[in-house]
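Dehydrogenase
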Amino acid sequence: MRIGLIGLGRIGAVHADTLAALDVVEEVVVTDPVRAAADAVTGRISKARAVDSPQALLDAGVDGVVIAAATNVHAELLEAALARGVTTFCEKPVAGTVAEAVRMQELAAQASAPVQIGYPRRFDPAFVAARDAVRDGSLGRVHTVRSTTLDPAPPPAAYLAVSGGIFRDCAVHDFDAVRWVTGQEVVSVYAVGATDPDAPAAMYRDHGDHTSASTLLTMSDGAIGVVSNTRTNARGYDVRLEVHGVTDAVAAGLDDGLPLRPTQPGVSWPAGPPHTFFMDRLAQAFRAELATFCRVVAGEIDSPCTVDDAMGTAWAAEAATLSAIEGRPVTVAEVQDRALV
Ligand SMILES: NC(=O)c1ccc[n+]([C@@H]2O[C@H](COP(=O)([O-])OP(=O)(O)OC[C@H]3O[C@@H](n4cnc5c(N)ncnc54)[C@H](O)[C@@H]3O)[C@@H](O)[C@H]2O)c1
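Structure:
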């Protein structure tokens, strides 16, 4: 099959390599307004061919499209792909604003082709096993889920400016993981954000953004989610999920790359070196995610993360953003009421 790939920045370049390594993919048609980004991909990947624009890419008659461009252009690109009836993978979050995301939900519901939203933890073997442990009942009733995403260093200022802020950009991975692993929806949130006084205001405060954040989630079947995020975890990239039930508890992400230094005398675990970036910690998940997307393109399976499904995560991020601004708990129903009037 021929897959189009729109956007060749940090994640798009990785997706280009991943797609090209799949036997089922014969050609990857790529585009990015930054010519050097396209040249770098076509220079190292023999299966890749560059075109000048997303329009030219859709005109090339691809079987499926992967949108890995900046968050603020997801909606226009997804709308264009759906108008052509092309099966589409769109990186998280669904769109730059919740209003656009709602519109994408409506378009996807009417579209002839499926959409898969990119939440890679759904394809990480440890997260899959944690979800299985919830579903097979071995944990008993789940009361607490702790989900952590700590980035070692902030993304570039230009990325942050269009990211939607730490809740919509980073915490969404945790909100989605808690929903997906527990099978429960987020009912209400209480979020706080903090900004490192040494961090450049133009990167954070000027956009109402934060360097660190924590969110408490009340889930639909009574579980409590505890979500931690930061852009400044210098020891490494920390992605973890603990699920605690009344009969047992499990954790995903407790490998030797966990970026924590134990202080107990005699304890030498984790052996290290720490994970340094999402690419190394989640490489296997990205491969499985895009291999799955190719099966969606081939019509073999349904989308494993539809726009409808991903909207549960988008609403939680919207509620968390408002909660941190107003310093109070916010229900998902409240932000839905505000947005859907
Ligand atoms: N699933 C994950 O774990 C994960 C990880 C990182 C990023 N992301 C998501 O992927 C997206 C890209 O993130 P990134 O880190 O690669 O950002 P980036 O800033 O490194 O790259 C974005 C790229 O999009 C290109 N672009 C901008 N407008 C475009 C347009 N109209 N058409 C085509 N290309 C366009 C830019 O030139 C740039 O090369 C974001 O939405 C982000 O949320 C997901």
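Residues 6-12, 31-34, 37, 54, 68-71, 73, 91-92, 118, 120, 159, 169, 278 surround nicotinamide-adenine-dinucleotide (CB under 6 Å).
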